Amino acid sequence: MADVEFRIVSDRREGLLLELGRLVMASGFTLQRQRMTRSEEGVVLTMLVRGPETNLLMLEDRLGSHPLVQSFEAGVPDAVRPATTTTAAPVEPLRARIPEHTGDAASTAPDHARVEVLLPALARAYPDVFSRVLAFEHELTVAQREATTRYAGMRLGAWIYKRDYALGARLNLGESVKHIALPAMRNLLRHVELNDDGLRIKNSPFTGIGLHRGSSCHFLRGCLEGLLNEPGHLGRPRILETFCRNSGADSCTFTFAA
Amino acid sequence: MHDHAIQCTHDPLLAALSYLVAVLGSYTALQLAIGIPAATDSRERTQAVVAAGAAMGGAIWAMHFIAMLACRMDIEVTYGVFLTAASALIGMISCMAGLAITGSGMFTWIKLAIGGVFMGVGVAGMHYTGMAAMQMAAATYYDTGIVGLSVLIAVVASSAALWLAFNMRGAAQMLGSALVMGVAVCGMHYTGMFAVSFDPNGEDPARATAGGISGPYLGATIFAITTLMLATVLAISLIRQQRRSLIKI
Questions:
Q1: Would the pTM count as exceeding 0.80?
Q2: H/E/C letters for each residue in chain B?
Q3: CB contact under 8 A, B168 and A163
Q4: pLDDT tens readout for residues B3-43
Q5: Cα angle at A20 between A253 and A148, to 5 degrees?
Q6: Interface probe with B: pick from A126, A162, A170, most Cβ of B within 10 Å
Q7: CATH class of A112-257
Q8: Residues of chain B neighbouring A168 (CB-CB closer than 8 A)
């Protein structure tokens, strides 16, 4: 079992603890204590969590790609530090304790800073966002592409939800896909349809551009995640790209599971 | 139909206006109502329910009395103050209940059905209480079968409007729900009017209509309510537009 302290910066206070608390529990951890403060960076949530060390990377990934999380730091809490460590010392980086994860996590984690720079341009250009996203994807390292474009998609999806789809009843996952995800994607792309297989996109701009092997529509997947995660009441539905034109399918298909 | 029944002939222009007012009022009410699920605390939720229910009840009331002004009868008619006010309250309270039920928590078909019944009964309750407020030298008779049909129309069309308002997003949500709710209100009213007949009862007209509200006062009240609804629509759209532009990505 590992005790880890997360310091999370967000731009939103409402629902932050609830959302991240759920995420912590879904990753097999328990929340020991938490504190929320305001700082110049935004809302700072400090959470002490306890759980299996093997799940730590998964929790970090989930936190890193959560739309409410702008940035986070993980460290060993004061109470479990060796006696020689002074309490005034800065939080010890977690990655020093689990070096086996260090390389992968750092290189594949989303580049939040670059996404933050991209997002205002996407908001201005919306719904014609793809030329900017493709150019952005080109600039990323191969290892960062999936996580970073997916994170950018999540942020855009969450923004679209808040802007155009927030008013109305809380819908279940199937109805949310039908009445929120489908029209939102149709606003971005022309040939989008929903059938029993899932949400099908015939003209994804991310296919056949030579940047990926296998499924390539990480930005679109992120968009769908942002659209469906933002309401909050659905938890974190799993969205998978089960077929991709980049892998030879006739269209890109996304499936949804609660 | 009874012998010597007094005929009600509707002025088509005022009848069309009654539908327009019903749609405008429904639009206002449903725009307020779709904010109910987004309320962050119980106070905000109560405010949204009360505002939406009051707007919906007011819209039904205004539509009803415009349609009554459109009904030309060869007899003097006034409206009793108490029952006229009660009819508005019945409409408002029923609609508040219907919107609160449909708009709370996760959307379900059961909630929609219960909400639709409250709304439909609210529309019908307002109508028949408003009819009971009529003061004239005539007795009122109803065909119960058609009355039942009018209530059914109100319940079914209200449920459809609520489904559109809460379940859909975009133009169908904004406009579709208001147009369908307009059908619920007007469909119920004009079916209800088809169910009624008025027979002269030989009472002195001056005595029968004494103390009631007559056409000009009713017209002024309807004008005030309609203006208020228009102002509310404008305010809602301006506030939402401003909030939308402030949403950070």
A1: no
A2: CCCCCECCEECHHHHHHHHHHHHHHHHHHHHHHCCCCCCCCHHHHHHHHHHHHHHHHHHHHHHHHHHHHHEECCCCCEECHHHHHHHHHHHHHHHHHHHHHHHCCECCHHHHHHHHHHHHHHHHHHHHHHHHCEECCEEEEECHHHHHHHHHHHHHHHHHHHHHHHHCCCHHHHHHHHHHHHHHHHHHHHHHHHHEEEEECCCCHHHHCCCCECHHHHHHHHHHHHHHHHHHHHHHHHHHHHHHHHCCC
A3: no
A4: 568 889 999 999 999 999 999 999 999 999 988 998 888 99
A5: 45
A6: A170
A7: alpha beta
A8: 34, 37, 165-169, 173
Q: How far is A186 from chain B (nearest CA, A)?
A: 13
Nearest chain A CA: its distance from B163 CA (Å): 9
Give domain limits for chain A. Answer: 2-76, 112-257
For residue A15, what is the nearest residue in chain B, using CA coordinates?
B40
Q: Which residue of A has its CA nearest to B163?
A: A169
Please name the member of B34, B40, B107 whose beta carbon is closest to the beta carbon of A167: B34
**pLDDT tens-digit series, residues B180-220:** 999 999 999 999 999 999 999 989 999 999 999 987 788 88
Q: Is the ipTM of this complex over 0.85?
A: no
Nearest CA in chain A to B99: A169
Report the alpha-carbon angle A103-A108-A111, nearest 5.
115
The string of pLDDT tens digits covering residues A127-154 is 999 999 999 999 999 889 999 999 999 9
Please tell me if residue A180 touches chain B, with a CB cutoff of 8 Å: yes
Closest residue, chain A, to B40 (C-alpha): A14
% of chain B with per-residue pLDDT over 70: 98
CATH number of the domain located at residue range(s) A2-76 in this protein = 3.30.70.260
**B103–A167 CB contact, under 8 Å:** no
**Which residues, given as ranges, of chain A have pLDDT below 70?**
78-107
pLDDT tens digit sequence for B92-112: 999 999 999 999 888 999 999
